[in-house]
Write a structure and sequence with these properties.
Elements lengths: L4 H13 L17 H4 L28 H15 L3 E5 L9 H6 L4 E3 L4 H12 L4 E7 H4 L3 H9 L5 E6 L16 H6 L5 E3 L4 H10 L6 E5 L21 E3 L7 E5 L4 H10 L6 E5 L2 E3 L3 H8 L3 E10 L3 H11 L5 E7 L9 H8 L3 H13 L1
């Protein structure tokens, strides 16, 4: 009985005295002592935010939907419109808000259980047999599928869309669940497209564009809410960087990965630099196209800011491409250090690493502009 402390201690002491290998089988009830958690059949209490103890209902700090819900809605719409689309998950359908889609389309979806490797190989096989699989995985669990993406999907030019949930630092889940290593991993596999949309409009366009690519497309998004992410009316051209606030007189290029542009704009404005800056939304992180690097070459000062992956992913790849072309300007790249992260909130980790937008802009001003 995993809830009987005395029995557990007795079993552990007996195992410690044994001169042979011992297996202790512990039986527990998930959510023991709290009726709402004990009665949970969907997995909603697997990981929770603040909630009301009396009612068990979540305390939402925002009316905004999560990125997970936004992508789940897009996927559900696609399953309805295209009978050849097929949703594959690996036990994360509750966290990724895909329960409804799977219930609505039982013949176009499957849960593989905690078997990401098999889920990816299965997706590759689907793609080679006339279907377009949408495989939803957390960024941290995507690491398990390196060989399958490489061998069973990319090598075969299988058209697979990977929805990479919880990309970036994930705070309270600790060092085992940080979604910061997948970009470096995916960039090492030929012909894999890696994208991180900056807003809802771009997210939808990248998702639809993945259906036009004869190969693997991985689309990343963070754990939090869509919130007040800024929309814009700039045209979308696949694989081309989007330039906001563009002016031929601007000598500063600020490249921001993912939905952080508004925060960076605010900090640049406080620093009195916004009127000198072209704001660049890369959208597509890999492959790195030569025309996009040529765009960056014209700036006297350049900031590359990626708070969602390690420096060994996108940031260092950009620096390498600039180096190959003998870039003569001043450049600062700020991304997550390539190390194992600790248990803390996303904000606390970013502050510790100097990755908050205000810290990044301040570092840019001091290191590059002065």
């Amino acid at each position: 009985d995993g809830h009987n402390i005395k029995a557990l201690v007795k079993a552990f002491e007996r195992a410690k005295r044994s001169e042979k290998s011992v297996i202790i089988h512990i039986n527990t009830v998930k959510g023991k002592g709290y009726p709402f958690a004990e009665g949970d059949k969907q997995g909603n209490w697997h990981g929770v935010g603040p909630f009301d103890i009396e009612t068990g209902k979540p305390k939402s700090a925002s009316n905004s939907i999560s990125w997970s819900q936004f992508y789940a809605d897009m996927i559900e719409k696609r399953l309805l419109e295209d009978t050849k689309s097929y949703l594959v998950v690996a036990s994360t359908q509750t966290g990724s808000k895909l329960n409804e889609a799977m219930a609505q389309f039982p013949n176009q979806s499957i849960d593989m259980g905690i078997a990401e490797e098999h889920a990816m190989t299965f997706s590759g096989a689907l793609a080679l047999n006339g279907f377009h699989p949408i495989i939803s995985l957390y960024a941290t669990f995507l690491q398990r599928t390196y060989d399958e993406i490489h061998h069973d999907c990319a090598r075969m030019k299988a058209p697979v869309t990977i929805i990479v949930d919880r990309a970036g630092l994930v705070g309270g889940d600790g060092e085992t669940h940080q979604g910061i290593y997948d970009v470096a991993m995916l960039s090492s596999i030929p012909d894999v497209v890696v994208a991180m949309p900056s807003n809802k409009t771009i997210a939808e366009k990248v998702f639809l564009e993945s259906y036009n690519y004869q190969g693997v497309t991985a689309i990343r998004y963070p754990k939090g809410n869509v919130g007040d992410v800024e929309e814009d009316d700039l045209p979308f051209v696949p694989y081309r960087y989007r330039v906001l606030n563009e002016d031929k007189k601007h000598d500063i290029g600020v490249l921001v990965v993912g939905p952080r542009m508004k925060e960076v704009k605010d900090e640049l404005s406080k620093a009195g630099l916004l009127e000198r800056c072209d704001l660049i939304d890369p959208v597509y992180l890999f492959p790195i196209k030569s025309e996009n690097i040529e765009l960056l070459m014209k700036y006297k000062h350049l900031l590359v800011y990626d708070a969602y992956s390690t420096e060994t992913g996108f940031a260092n790849a950009i620096l390498a491409e600039l180096f190959k072309r003998h870039y003569q300007g001043n450049v600062l790249a700020k991304a997550v250090p390539n190390r194992f992260m600790y248990l803390a909130s996303e904000k606390e980790i970013e502050e510790d690493l100097g990755l908050r937008p205000n810290q990044v802009v301040d570092s840019f001003v001091r290191a590059v502009m002065m």
